[in-house]
Design a protein that fits this description.
Layout (H helix, E strand, L loop, with lengths): L1 H10 L12 H12 L2 H11 L7 H10 L2
Length: 67
């Protein structure tokens, strides 16, 4: 019931925020972003999104580059 009342308050606010934090993970990330160094946050996000993981194109070029 509390969640529903909160949503109604958000929708009917006279001055709504531009952004609302939704979910437990987003709330923790918002709190962590205040205290953690930017590099640590970036590294965690890159790891979570697997942006540094080897891709097929990288593996193919590595195999072709071998003597």
């Amino acid at each position: 019931m509390a969640k529903l009342e909160r949503r109604i308050a958000l929708v009917t606010a006279a001055r709504p925020k531009l952004r609302y934090t939704v979910g437990g993970l987003a709330s923790r990330l918002r709190w962590l972003r205040r205290f953690a160094p930017a590099g640590l946050m970036d590294a965690g996000i890159r790891k979570n999104l697997q942006l540094d993981a080897p891709t097929a194109s990288r593996l193919d070029s590595a195999v072709l580059a071998r003597p």
